[in-house]
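[audit] Reproducing an earlier prediction to check determinism. Same input, same settings, fresh worker. If the tokens differ from the archived copy the diff job will pick it up downstream; this log only records the rerun itself.
[audit] input (117 residues):
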Amino acid sequence: MDELLFEIVKIVVMVVALLIARYLVPWLRQKIGAEKVAEISMWAKQAVLMAEQVYKDWKGQDKKALVTEYLKKILKAKNISLTDEQLNILIEAAVKQMKMQENSGILIEATDEVTNQ
């Protein structure tokens, strides 16, 4: 009887391990990935705001180069890998959001609180 109970427990443990591997691990990877994208988007928004406020006289290309280099340093420090195209999309989205907020009359300012994570 003990041998039968041991086999049942062993099968239950295997099924639970299978379910964890099948559903929990991909969910965690997706969750962590989404959080990283949100964090990088926040950094991009703050960097764009900083460049716009501090370097008002610079051309758009120069500001974008500054923001790109700044974000690459942050990504390297956090060991996050993004392609130049993905980084460009995040920067352009932050610029578009900033311009939309400016056109709607919303006052926005860069803060230092995002660099501490």
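[audit] rerun output stored. Observation attached for the diff report: The radius of gyration is 23 Å.
[audit] end
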